[in-house]
Amino acid sequence: MIVVSACLAGKKCRYDGSAKPDDEVLRLVRDGKAVCACPEAMSGLRIPRPPAEIRGGDGFSVLRGEADVYNKEGKCVTQEFLNGARRFLACVQQNGAREVWLKAKSPSCGVEKIYDGTFKGMLRDGCGVTCALLIKHGIKVVEIH
């Protein structure tokens, strides 16, 4: 079983209320080989919501308490992102998944690059909060663009 970011499975849970469906993810879910979940929705954040970015590091920095997640309105939403990451990890573990497919560039799910915290569309190396927690627990992550 694979767990996939819900937005990749066509669920309208992204910050702007949209989805980013991926044909392969849709097929896996349809065939019962994958389940979908969204850490940001699992955290209780509303849909739609202001976009959020990590300031001062990446997901690993957030886990260590060295960086925070802020939304575009300037509100710190670090705790929500941590709560969502923990709930997502619990879903992965409950489903016995050893692999997770995550949405690129997200402050939760980004694997290789995330937005830099300035809300200017600039990317930097690093992963999101949920991705970092999954890696820390030995879960294989795959980035889907």
TrEMBL record:
Cited Pfam families: 2-thiour_desulf
Domain of life: Bacteria
InterPro entries (UniProt xref): 2-thiour_desulf
Listed name of the protein: DUF523 domain-containing protein
